[in-house]
């Protein structure tokens, strides 16, 4: 009966088709799973091996650089004449020569990386150290553990040893890295220079990765780094090194766990640098995917065989019915229907594709990009709603909060580090933010500007509110300052109920953060305390006085003006953004002046940009302005002694005295006894302006003074400043001041809450002095 059924099944076209589809599908799924696993392993070799090799190379360069610095000291000492005088000295003069050598060693040991420097005499076995001075015998020295290497020192041009100074257990001792250079005399080693480096400081510059373990071995196979036996034990590392041999890369197994091993060799120290990266967390997801695919293959086979069975079960029903009639005692079983294979396989394959898609996309990066697009208005309303539901499906519909974290005095801080170090510190800062806020808040952190981060927050359980967020923000400031030695300020925007209002909350937080100008650094802020505005006339008058005072070549005048401006700002609590703009305006003016006169800008603003002042408080801005104006005034003082400067000042004085007349370039040239072309080029070089433009601005400034302080008609004022045609005067005035003379007079006579109306360019300086 069974043989009959089997033959029938193979002859049936539908059965053969189902069997063929089952085998093909299962084989396809198996190949996809195994192929994906193989490709991932191949990509792993390329994508993960290269960064580990680069990290080893970086650490090798760091240790080589630190070693060269110490080795150069040892080599230099071994060739110093004082060293040979000490080694060749007789017993009676040994102590005198040793005193000079000790002074030399003490100067070398002043470097914080150098713990001590020792010089050993092989002839009479005396020793001199920067720590304990001269000892007639090695055994009398507090540090004599190096005497065990004497044989090696005499046979090698360089020796590097890791050793303990004090207790070998390390509880009360100091771990050192000793670099030994022999002092040669007549082709033999007469003594040795031993430079003892602080072990921790020497290796503190090495970069480490969270998931990797790094080891350093010397030429003798001794473990140099790390200090403590963490991770893979040294006994197991011997097998790893033996398996690596001289190959740069290999997969190794230690105590049943697989690692990716990389190594490199230093051509300076001869050290071997080895890194181990555990493969479990790297291959966890891909192994799961591979096993899922094999499981699906098995399921497809089972489903196919089930389909064949149930299909033929129905086909042989008449035979079974006859069998039951002939053998009523055998009984029977209920029948089933044919299973549909395609929906089952489609469901599993679709589930796998969805999980693979989610795994390949980095959700944190997508969230950060999404928030960045909202703040930059690069995304439409429909897309905002769609992506929110897709990227933030695990967030609730509760309120959202924006917090801005800014590095205080960013440009001063950034100038202290290389770009790579700044990136590492910012990465550490972001990790601290996420760690401090993680217990109570869902967070998404993005880099808004060079100096600041934006954090989107939502309470995890809905219980955390503004009070808890204030405490977390203060804790964040304290933690960053303690661990990174970095001052940051934070500002919290108002809560919003919808992601569409995120931009308004961010703008409010930025405005609140700007009050760092008054409150100082390392503070948490929630509300803006002031909202006053500086009068445009006051700002313009202050800028004009500063620029004019620069040319008086008296730095005390500038300091008084800056102090007066800062005091006025503090007194009235002017809106910070306006203060920043005012400071930016005067700094840009100073840069333009120095560029026009081919002077070097002060180093404080050598690479100046607008955001530099935005992370400073008012005291620092005041100090910077005082320093900048003092240096520019000093350059003006030097510049004022030139013959060209005096000629140009004579031209300016002539223009001021005759501006009411119809004078021109020829009249000015005749006054100073020079040609027209020489006057034009000299004036342009010294002032950065043409003669015509400078005369026009002199006339308009004088007109502004007359409009503010007198009741003359506009036609009369035009004549008094050298314009015979009133319309021409109005046209030029509006071009320069952006208002007509009549409007300017009205606005100048309006009440000013903060300061008197703008003074002329000749007043104020003497009064303030």
UniProtKB/TrEMBL annotation:
Keywords: DNA-binding, Membrane, Transcription, Transcription regulation, Transmembrane, Transmembrane helix. Pfam families: GGDEF_2, HTH_18. InterPro entries: CdaR_GGDEF (IPR041522), Homeodomain-like_sf (IPR009057), HTH_AraC (IPR018060), HTH_AraC-typ_CS (IPR018062). Residues 747-769 are annotated as: Disordered. Residues 649-747 form the HTH araC/xylS-type domain. The keyword Membrane applies. SUPFAM superfamilies: Homeodomain-like. The chain crosses the membrane at residues 292-311. PROSITE patterns: HTH_ARAC_FAMILY_1, HTH_ARAC_FAMILY_2. This is Helix-turn-helix domain-containing protein.
């Amino acid at each position: 009966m069974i043989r009959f059924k089997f033959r029938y099944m193979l002859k049936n076209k539908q059965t053969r088709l189902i069997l063929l589809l089952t085998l093909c599908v299962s084989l396809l799924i198996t190949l996809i799973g195994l192929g994906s696993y193989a490709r991932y392993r191949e990509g792993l070799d390329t994508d993960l091996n290269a960064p580990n090799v680069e990290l080893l190379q970086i650490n090798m360069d760091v240790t080589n650089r630190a070693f060269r610095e110490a080795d150069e000291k040892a080599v230099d000492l071994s060739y110093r004449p004082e060293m040979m005088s000490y080694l060749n000295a007789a017993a009676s003069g040994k102590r005198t020569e040793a005193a000079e050598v000790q002074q030399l060693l003490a100067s070398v040991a002043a470097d914080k990386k150098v713990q001590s420097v020792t010089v050993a005499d092989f002839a009479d076995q005396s020793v001199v150290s920067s720590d304990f001075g001269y000892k007639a015998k090695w055994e009398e020295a507090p540090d004599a553990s190096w005497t065990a290497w004497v044989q090696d020192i005499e046979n090698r041009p360089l020796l590097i040893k890791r050793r303990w100074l004090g207790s070998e257990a390390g509880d009360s001792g100091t771990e050192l890295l000793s670099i030994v250079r022999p002092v040669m005399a007549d082709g033999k080693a007469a003594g040795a220079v031993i430079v003892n480096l602080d072990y921790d400081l020497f290796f503190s510059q090495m970069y480490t990765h969270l998931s990797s373990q790094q080891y350093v071995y010397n030429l003798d196979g001794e473990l140099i780094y790390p200090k403590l036996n963490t991770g893979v034990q040294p006994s197991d590392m011997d097998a790893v090194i033996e398996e690596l041999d001289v190959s740069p890369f290999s997969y190794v197994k230690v105590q049943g766990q697989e690692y990716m091993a990389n190594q490199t060799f230093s051509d300076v120290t001869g050290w071997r640098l080895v890194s181990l990266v555990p493969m479990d967390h790297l291959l966890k997801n891909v192994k799961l995917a591979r096993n899922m695919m094999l499981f699906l293959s098995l399921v497809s086979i089972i489903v196919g065989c089930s389909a064949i069975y149930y299909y033929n079960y129905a086909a042989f029903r008449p035979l079974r019915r006859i069998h039951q009639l002939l053998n009523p005692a055998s009984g029977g079983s209920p029948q089933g229907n044919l299973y549909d294979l395609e929906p089952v396989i489609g469901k599993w394959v679709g589930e796998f594709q969805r999980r693979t898609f989610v795994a390949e996309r980095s959700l944190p990066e997508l969230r950060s990009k999404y928030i960045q697009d909202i703040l930059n208005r690069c995304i439409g309303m429909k897309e905002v709603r769609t992506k929110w539901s897709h990227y933030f499906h695990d967030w609730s519909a509760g309120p959202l909060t924006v917090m801005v974290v800014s590095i205080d005095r960013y440009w001063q801080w950034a100038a202290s580090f290389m770009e790579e170090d700044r990136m590492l510190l910012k990465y550490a800062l972001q990790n601290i933010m996420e760690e401090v806020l993680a217990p109570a808040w869902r967070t998404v952190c993005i880099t808004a500007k060079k100096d600041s981060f934006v954090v989107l927050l939502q309470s995890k359980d809905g219980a955390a509110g503004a009070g808890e967020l204030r405490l977390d923000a203060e804790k964040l400031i304290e933690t960053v300052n303690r661990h990174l030695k970095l001052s940051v300020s934070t500002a919290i925007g108002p809560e919003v109920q919808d992601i569409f209002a995120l931009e308004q909350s961010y703008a409010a937080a930025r405005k609140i953060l700007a009050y760092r100008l008054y409150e100082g650094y390392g503070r948490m802020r929630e509300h803006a305390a002031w909202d006053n505005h500086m009068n445009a006339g006051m700002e313009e008058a202050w800028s004009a006085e500063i620029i004019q005072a620069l040319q008086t070549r008296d730095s005390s005048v500038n300091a008084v003006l800056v102090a007066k401006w800062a005091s006025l700002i503090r007194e009235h609590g002017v809106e910070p953004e306006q203060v920043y703009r005012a400071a930016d305006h005067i700094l840009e003016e100073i840069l333009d002046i120095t560029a026009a006169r081919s002077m070097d800008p002060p180093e404080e603003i050598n690479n100046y940009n607008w955001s530099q002042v935005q992370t400073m408080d008012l005291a620092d801005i005041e100090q910077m302005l005082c320093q900048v104006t003092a240096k520019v005034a000093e350059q003006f003082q030097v510049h004022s002694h030139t013959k060209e400067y005096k000629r140009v000042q004579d031209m300016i004085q002539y223009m001021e005295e005759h501006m009411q007349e119809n004078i021109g370039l020829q009249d000015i040239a005749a006054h100073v006894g020079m040609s027209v072309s020489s006057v034009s080029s000299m004036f342009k070089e010294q002032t950065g302006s043409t003669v015509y433009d400078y005369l026009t601005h002199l006339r308009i400034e004088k007109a502004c003074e007359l409009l503010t302080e007198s009741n003359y008609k506009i036609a009369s004022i035009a004549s008094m400043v050298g314009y015979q045609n009133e319309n021409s005067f109005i046209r030029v005035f509006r071009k320069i001041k952006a208002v007509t003379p009549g409007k300017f007079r009205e606005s100048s006579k309006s009440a000013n809450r903060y300061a008197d109306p703008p003074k002329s360019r000749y007043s104020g300086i003497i009064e303030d002095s």
